[in-house]
Amino acid sequence: MIKILFICHGNICRSPMAQFVLQHMVDTRGLTDRFHIDSAATSTEEIGNGIHYGTLSIFKQHNIPCTGHRARQMTKRDYEQYDYLIGMDDANICNMARISGGDPEHKIHRLLEYAGSRRAIADPWYTGDFDVTYADVLEGCEAFLEYLLAEQTRGL
Fold it and tell me: Fewest Cβ atoms nearer than 10 Å: which of 66, 69, 123, 150?
C-alpha cells in the first residue's frame, strides 16, 4: 500500500482538495486498496476545523465525495509513516522539512513537480479563486497518479 500525505498551511483548502481529488481518482479506477491518502497542515491555526466552504463548493461541482475531515497538524511521525509527503508551495516544503527534521529519504515534494512544473499551487484562502487552485490540484494529482502507477509497474 502506498501512503500519501498532502500538506498545506491550514489543511482546510489545498491539502484536503488534493486528498479527496486523488482519492476520487483512485476509487474510480478501482485502486482503493492500493493507496492510503490523508492530509495535514504545517500550522496550528485551523486544527479541528472542517474543509473550507470554497473547497466544498468545488467538490460539489465536480461530484467529489468527502467525509469526516478535520484539520490536523503534520508531525515528525508522519515522515516515518508516509511514503510521500506532498506540499503545495515552497513555504509548505520548508515547514515540512522543519517539522520532520529534514528529508533524508527524499519523501518531500511539491505536487506540481509531477506535472513537470516548478510553480506553486496558489492558496485560495488568500486569492479567493478556488477554480484556479482546483485546476492546478487536478493537474498535479493526475500526473502524480500516473507516476505512482508507473512506479508500481516497474516494481513488479
Answer: 150
